[in-house]
Amino acid sequence: KFVCVTSPFSCLSQLLLHPQIICRLVWGRVGLKVYKPISLELFQCSKLLVVKACFTISLVTPSRSFFPYLEGKLNLNCLVLFKVLRNFTFAVSWRAEEILYRLDVDWPKHPEYFTGATFCAAVDSLNGLVYVAQRGDNIPKILVFTEDGYFLRAWNYTVDSPHGIFAASTQYEQSVWITDVGSGVYGHTVKKYSSFGDLVQVLGTPGKKGTGLNPLQFDNPAELYVEDTGDIYIVDGDGGLNNRLIKLSQNFMILWLHGENGTGPAKFNIPHSVTLDSAGRVWVADRGNKRIQVFDKDTGEWLGAWNNCFTEEGPSAVRFTPDGKYLIVAQLNLSRLSVVAAPPVGSIGECSVISTIQLADQVLPHLLEVDRKTGAVYVAEIGAKQVQKYVPLNSYVPPFGS
């Protein structure tokens, strides 16, 4: 039940001025969060003044094995009626944001395969495969699922501490790339594998961090993005010696790089994630500087930056939706996903958040991937030690009565 004060104007102002989460309720191991209303209307009906609000509530459980059918979010419509003491006519309508995704609570079918801290996920859209990389002792580091959530296989060969993962999939080749930040004999490298875990290529000096370019060395390489042409974009420096963005050719030659620590244009402080859009622009989550920087993919020219959306915390992951309309951004310590409007070709403009997904506290979304065929978003959560799948609402028709 929602209890409001007697004055409709006071009620309205409290709802609008509240933080995003209005209240938290706990029953045993199950928590309920009530969020700021996504829509609010105030109007007069006969001798009654009506406040109509649509709230989003989410049920939070410690694991999927406990009430899994209750996980996720749902909308709750609420009517609050006030008696009108004098006649006046007005109407107020307000809407916060769109809801664009729903949580797929059936993915994966067997979450018990998550036995470590899940740092990243990759999607082979061509073959319908999802790769999950996790860390821990005496556990498989790479898990392979179908896009429907069925577990296929696991492998662990030459993987130390995975940080980022990318599935490069064309009609000619399917491969899996992993950035390894471990301190063991396989660490500080970027490695290419077959889908079954066979090591194909190693970039960097295994087990030895460094700043060199010839031969190329890494120190805590965070993530990479591989174009269909075979060109590779690497962000190197998750808190290590390096803070740089490197573009390599398919033959692993350096085409261009930006590699200086700082706050100015084309300088970085923990470049954590990298992606491309269809207009030939490279987008980098400059996490320590609380911004996203943008570059021309051919020349490496700096095109601009977004920082107005990340005043609380810098972005930890960036990926575009298949239609190129939105950029999905994760913020680790805020446990938040944001859907940001992509700018038109020829302009960077300002960051504009269209929708958000507020996860439970300490879920910690680290990196994410978007299925280029279905648009599904896979989020690796190091706090919750799981990967969750979010499906675009416009591609889903729920069965009657669900």
UniProtKB/TrEMBL annotation:
InterPro entries for this protein: 6-blade_b-propeller_TolB-like, NHL_repeat, TRIM-NHL_E3_ligases
A Pfam family the protein falls into: NHL
Keywords: Glycoprotein, Repeat, Signal
GO biological process, one term: proteasome-mediated ubiquitin-dependent protein catabolic process
Superkingdom of origin organism: Eukaryota
NHL repeat start and end residues: 259-298
Keyword Ribonucleoprotein: no
Gene3D superfamilies linked: TolB, C-terminal domain
Signal peptide: none
An example molecular function term from Gene Ontology annotations: ubiquitin protein ligase activity
PANTHER family listed in its UniProt record: E3 UBIQUITIN-PROTEIN LIGASE NHLRC1-RELATED, NHL REPEAT-CONTAINING PROTEIN 3
Protein name: NHL repeat-containing protein 3
